[in-house]
Amino acid sequence: MSLIPQLILNSLIAGSIYSLVALGFNLIYGTKRFFNLSHGAVAIIGGYIAFYFTKSLGVGIIVSSIIGILAAGILGYLLDRFVFRKLRQRKASDMVFLITSLGLMIVLQAVTALLFTNDFQIFSSQFTSYQIFGGVITQVQIIIIVSVIVISTGLFLLLKKTRFGKMVRAISDDEEVSKIVGIDTNKVIGWVFFIGSAIAGLSGILSGLDIGLEPTMGLSLLFKGVIAAVIGGVGNVYGGILGAFLLAFVENFGIWGISSEWKDVISFGLLIVFLLFRPQGILKK
Amino acid sequence: MNKTTKIGIGVVVVIVLAVWGISSLMAPKGPTTKPTIKIGVTLPLTGGVAALGQANKNAILLAESQLPKNLKYNYQLEFQDDQFNPGIGASNVTKMISVDGVSALISFGSPVGNVVSPIAEQNQITHVNDFASDPHVANGTYNFVDYTPAYQDAKVFFPELEKRGIHTIVFFGQQDNTGALALINTFLSVASSTPSIKVVSTQMFNTGTTDFRTQIAKVKGLNPDIYVFEASSPELEILTQQLRQAGVKTPITTMEAFDFSSQLSLFEGDWYVDAASPMSWFVDLYTKTYGTAPLSGAANGYDSLNLIVQAAETAGDGKSVPSSTAIATALAKISGFNGALGDNLSVGADHLVVSDAVVKMIQNGKPVTISQ
C-alpha cells in the first residue's frame, strides 16, 4: 500500500478533528476576544455524556450523540451565563477571563474524572473500515470529515445570511455600539457560547468514537484547536479550518521522514513561525 | 477574675491532680505497651492506575491483619495517595518522614520510586517499592524493590518469542514514561544481542499522543511477525485501536504493559510476559477477604509489609523502636522468605527481591497465566 494516500487520509482525519475544535473556539473568541481554556473540557464532557447514555442506559448512538451535543451546548451557555457574564459586567481584564477559564477547565476535568473515573473508555472496539484510493479509513472517520463540511457550511449560512449572524458580527466589531443600537448582547453571546460549545461537544463525541475518552484529553484537543485557530487567523471561523488542515498536513508529512517524537515540535514550531512572521494568521479576522 | 473564682479553679485543679495521682498509683502493674513502628505507604489511590493502587493497599492491610499477635512491636500504617505522580509521592514521603516520624516506607511503581529512593536514602529511612520494573529504585543502602525486574521479564520474553517462531518485530515505546523506560531499554538491549530476533522498526512517541496513524502507516508495510508495545494507558489502547483500524491483524505483545490497560478486550488472545504471579493461597485469601481476585502487584504489597516486619522484628529488642539503619541492614540479609509471590525468596545483593516472570494470555478479557 502506498504511503501517500494514507498520509493524505490521516491528514484529512486529523485536520477535521482540529477544525471542529477550532470552529467552536474561534466562534467564541471572535465574539468575545478571550482564549476560553474550558472549551476543551466542554468538548470531552459532551463525549462522556454520549458515552454514558450509550453504555450505561443503552440508548442508541445517534440519540446519545444529540444529547451529548445539546448538553455541551447548555454547559457552555451556563458557563457564560453564570461566570463569564459576571466578569463582563465587572469589566474584568483579559487575564482574569483567561485564569477563570483555566480554573473552569480544571474543575470540569476533575468532576469528569470523579464521575467517570480516570480509566480510558471506548465506545466500542468494533468498527467498519473502507479502502479509499489506496488508504484505509473507518466509518467514524468519514463522519468526522463530513461533519466539518456540514458544520462549516451551516456556520457560514448562520453568520452571513441570518439576522442572528449580523448581530454576532456586530458584537464582534464593537459590543458597546451593538448595545446602543438595541442588540441584547448578553443573549446573543449566550447563544454563541451555546453553539460554540455544542460544536465542541460534537468534536468530543466524534473523537471519543474514533479513539476513546479520558478526562484529560480535552486539553490536547484544545491545544491543537488553538494552534489551528492562530495559524488560520484567530477569530476567523474559516481561517481556523484552513489552519487545522495545514497543521494536520504539516504534522503528518513532517514525520514521514523523521521520527514521530518530533510531532509536537513540528506543531508548536509551526505556531511559533506564524506568531513571528504572520501573527494575524493566514486569513485576517 | 474575682477571688472566689480563683479559689474555685484552684480547688478543681487540686482535685484533678489528686485523682490522677491516685489512679496512677492504683493502676495494675501489667506488661508495658509494645513500641509502635510507623510505616508510611504512598500509593496511587486515585488517578489512572487507582485500581492497582487500591489492590496494593488492600493487600497491605490484609498482611497487617494476618500479623501474629506475639510480635515485639505494634505496626501502624499510614496511607497517602500519590496519584502515580512523582511530585506528589515526594511530597507524601517528605511529610511522612519529617512530620509523622515513620521508620519505613512503601511506594509503588518506578516513577514514584525513583523520586522516593533518594529521599529515603538521604533521610536513612528503609524504603521498599513493590511495583518497580526499574532496578535503579533499589539503589543505595536503604532502598529495596520487591518486584520482578525487567531483566527477569526479558529472560522469559525472548525465549517465548523464539518458541513461537517470531523473528521480526516492530516496536513502539512511550519514551517519556519512566515506568516503561526500564522495560524499553531492557527490550532493545536484549533484542540487539539476540541473533534470532530482528527489530525492523523502532517507533518512539511521547505521552499524550493520540494520533499514531502515520507511524502505523510507516511500519505497516514491513509486515513484522509481531508488534511489541511498551506504553501505559491511554496511549496503549489508542495505539492498539488505530493499528486495528488500519487493517493490521498482526498479534501484539508486551512486557507488563497490559497490566495498565482498562480495556483488556482489545488484546483478546494476545500473550505477554508479566511479573510473578501470586501463590494460590494468597489469591484465595485475598478473594475471600475482598470478594474479588487480586490485581497485579497486590501480592508484592503483601510481601513488602511482611519483609519490613520481619526485618524490624530481627533488628529490634522489643523495648525501643529499632533504627531504620538496623531495619535496612536486617532486610538486606533476608533469605528463605516464604511470601505471596513464592517460597524461599531472598533479598539479593542488589536489594532486589527477585521473583520469576510468567507468560500470560488475555482470555475472555482477563489475564490468565499460561506458563510459569
Report on this model:
The complex is a heterodimer of chains A (285) and B (372). By secondary structure, chain A is mainly alpha-helical. Chain A has a domain at 25-218. Helices cover 76% and strands 3% of the residues of chain A. Chain A starts with a helix and ends in an 8-residue tail after the last helix. Chain B folds into two domains: 36-148 and 278-355, Response regulator (Rossmann fold); 150-256, Rossmann fold (3-Layer(aba) Sandwich), CATH 3.40.50.2300. Chain B contains eleven helices and 14 strands. The N and C termini of chain B lie far apart (80 Å). By secondary structure, chain B is of the alpha/beta class. In chain B, α2 packs across α10 (298-315). In chain B, β11 and β12 (342-345) form a beta hairpin. Chains A and B meet through α1 and α10 of A and β7, α7 and α8 of B.
Q: Please trace the helix and strand order of chain B, writing H or E for each element.
A: HEHEHEHEEHEHEHEHEEHHHEEEE
Report on the biggest sheet of chain B: 5 strands, parallel
Which shape of chain A, going by the Cα principal axes?
Answer: globular
Q: How do the strands of the widest beta sheet of chain B line up side by side?
A: 2-1-3-4-5
The termini of chain B sit apart by 80 Å
User: What proportion strand of chain B?
Assistant: 15-25%
Structural class of chain A: mainly alpha
**Tell me, what is the CATH class of the largest domain in chain B?**
Alpha Beta
Oligomer: heterodimer
- The H-and-E topology of chain A, N to C, reads as HHHHEEHHHHHHH
Largest interface: A-B, 32 and 37 residues
Q: What portion of residues of chain A belong to β-strands?
A: under 5%
Measured on Cα atoms, how large is the radius of gyration of chain A?
19 Å
Integer count of domains of chain B = 2
Overall outline of chain B: elongated
